[in-house]
Amino acid sequence: MSPVPMPVPAPWGAPAAGFHSHWPPANGLTTIHCPRNDSVFQVNASSHINAPVDIIWDVLRNTSGFPEWNTFTPSATITSQPLNKSLPAEEQDFLNLGTKFTYSVVLDSRAPQNRTPSMEQVDDVSTPVHQSNYVPSDLLKNDGSFFPDLSRVYRISWVTDPDSDIVKQGLCSERFNEIIPLDDCNGRKKGCEYRTWELQGGPPATYVQQLYGTLLQEDFEIWARDLKGKAEKKAKTQRGRGHHGH
Hints:
Low-confidence stretches: 2-19
């Protein structure tokens, strides 16, 4: 997210309350477009979601469903889809590699009437069936920011639209989302871990951090909570109808 983000107490923001204690890494997270050494600040959140990965993946990418669950981003409009990808009618509102979209974000959940537009572009999508090499293999294996097993993780990331004014003013930002299916020691499905993080750098990021850094950390935690609630509700409904996720 871009021109949206009270100062944070540490340069990396507050650690997410994820149930995997090894994430985020102690030296902070990183992204490809905005590496940790070039960033001004970062925010992150995580949650355990008791739902199949395909349900979570669809809820996360379907912008038309955002008003149903997303307190932080109650609406998002697709401005263009990749020309080289033929999409079925039911996926015209889904985020895909190359999708350009505009968020309408609520920075302060106590003032939901105040919304800020933010122009974004999806720069990476990776699934077990269609694995991406966007994250270099050494970074994937050794950094600790990214889940290293591409045969398991579902990942989507986006940057502030390169055509937006704030990027032309020097903002560097990138947000990652990962969904990791979990099994117990007997191979039984145990839901998924969801992780999301964003780094911002460049001169505008200092302004963003000073004005909105603390709020943005809260917003990411709200997003992770809301995604959990929506996906678990959808999974429960499908189980009641006799449907089974992957």
